[in-house]
Amino acid sequence: MDKGKSVKPLTSSLQNLDLNPGSNIKPKPSNIIIANPQFPSTFCFFFSFIIDLLFLWLLPKKTKPPSLVSLCLGVVGKNLDDIIDDLGEIAVNLPADIKMALAAIARRRKLLNDAVLISLADTSWEIIDVSGSDVSDFGIIKAAEICRFIRALDISRCSKITATGISELVKHCHLLETLRCGGCPRSDGTARRCLSIFKPNLNYVEEDSWEELDTNEIASGAQSLRWLVWPNIDKVTLEDVAAECPRIVVNPKQSPFGFNGNHVPWEALQHMVLDDAVVKDIDPRTWAIHGFTMKPSSPPLSSPTEMSVAEKFRLAFEERDTRLAPKRAKNARQHQRRAVRELMLMSTRAKAAVLASQASKSLNSRS
Question: What CATH number does domain 68-305 carry, 3.80.10, 1.10.240, 2.40.128, 2.60.330?
């Protein structure tokens, strides 16, 4: 048998052998577009770059482990109620940031009161958040005497802080720029009564605009207050603030242009919590061990310009009580004079009866 004749058919059969059975399938239109040599190469590069970015974005993020200080604060925060009576002695040698973190934990655990705030207050503090706590006028006044460099203060939902405490606050804290208030009927009423305190009293000046005034030209009142965060302020009060305190912006919103050229600080944004930054690395279970969890403040369901029924009744009662106070004082004086006159009459009648009985006895004895 000739070897050449037997090799040729084998060679031709090997050449016809298809080692890639899927090569006959027509590509999809998208593949044709990308594989088209006439298609711009820049788009192909950009498309692959976007795919790489999406892939990196979908990768699990590596979380930074908490620091040793944050772990220690978490342990202290969980046992804060056990050491709260001795907190004044413990906090003497603590740094200012540690004191602020402990105050934030105490507020979240509903343990923040006058004693705790005064024990932790530091002269270098620029931000104080006592919202929703039991701090009263006494505590906020003492804190204002210690922390004279306060720029932002949150006293919202503090039912024990009255206009007296806010009045003393603005006297001591001349750098206060942002004040957060309201949040509950009593706190709303306090803020409404403080409009005269917020309004600056001016010395004699010749400027044409409030914006041109210097701080030393303001005799009293809130000298540096520029941002007032009061989510459920009513329409009437809002108009009063705009008319009497034009330097103060109520409920500012983030804007690239700001207000009158002034950048809105983050402390004045409604959705921000002032002391969140100092506890961001601390385990939230520190203040959730008793079933209390911090929730972001949300606007009320009702319209922000509408007062609650209880607040309307309270304001109506206060107005009626103030209106009838002079009449009640007049009636009290009349009742007092009448009682004195009746007492004198009763005494005269009693004296006359005694004299008459004595006279009748003497006449009977003579007869």
Answer: 3.80.10
